[in-house]
Design brief:
CATH class of the largest domain: Alpha Beta
Number of domains: 2
Number of strands: 5
Order of helices and strands: EHEHEHEHEHHHHHH
Radius of gyration: 28 Å
CATH architecture of the largest domain: 3-Layer(aba) Sandwich
Helix content: 40-55%
Number of helices: 10
Strand content: 5-15%
Shape: rod-shaped
């Protein structure tokens, strides 16, 4: 029968106690220690070198050293230990910073205790686990950027105005060439800004000169 050595690094005493209780309910899990900070965890490892966890569950928002900074510190002492980040932070930059630092899984604290325990088994057996909301953010990050065809947004008249703007013509000169009023030119310019989601004439000209119109 497998026995998974688990450590917890969580500063919230209520959450830490809940995780400890959940781990202790599983015969296949053995809680080796629970600490309130990375520093306390490292001190425990220094004093108890035989307490080597297979899986560490660690928060990010810890007192002193934060969880992301703590990952390489823990990995330096426990090279083969798997680290699961269990945190309230769901921003992409936090997720990827933790994964790049060496965490193998990232779980939201909104995840049920049953799923968190399942994640420990998954990680111990060589897998990785992401909360659905986290997994979606990872997928979104790697989705290909869809090219925007600005030409389809503009009418023929608006494209003519853009071409003349790029040639350096003033609003009055454009009005004279196209035989429309200057107010009509201004109206089209405002529409062009809105359709292209830009704020200045230079933005429009740059799109045109970059071949994006």
């Amino acid at each position: 029968m497998e026995e998974i050595a688990v450590a917890i690094i969580e500063d919230d005493p209520v959450i830490r106690a809940s995780l400890v209780k959940s781990v202790e309910m599983y015969p296949a899990m053995n809680l080796v220690f629970a600490a309130g900070s990375v520093e306390d965890a490292l001190d425990h490892l220094d004093d108890n070198p035989s307490d080597i966890p297979d899986v560490v569950m660690m928060d990010i928002g810890l007192p002193g050293m934060d969880g992301i900074s703590g990952i390489p510190q823990v990995k330096e002492r426990l090279e083969k230990t798997n680290i699961i980040m269990l945190t309230t932070y769901e921003e992409q930059e936090k997720i990827f910073a933790a994964l790049c630092a060496g965490a193998c899984s990232y779980i939201s604290k909104r995840t049920s205790l049953k799923q968190i325990m399942d994640a420990i088994f998954t990680v111990y057996r060589g897998g990785s686990y992401m909360s659905p909301s986290i997994a979606r953010k990872v997928v979104e990050h790697f989705k290909p950027i869809q090219a925007v065809n600005h030409t389809e947004k503009l009418s023929d008249r608006q494209l003519q105005i853009v071409e003349h703007l790029s040639d350096g013509k003033s609003y009055k000169a454009i009005a004279d060439v196209l035989k429309i009023s200057i107010d009509t030119v201004r109206f089209h310019i405002k529409k062009i800004y809105k359709l292209l989601e830009v704020n200045t004439k230079l933005d429009v000209i740059n799109l045109y000169r970059d071949g994006k119109l």
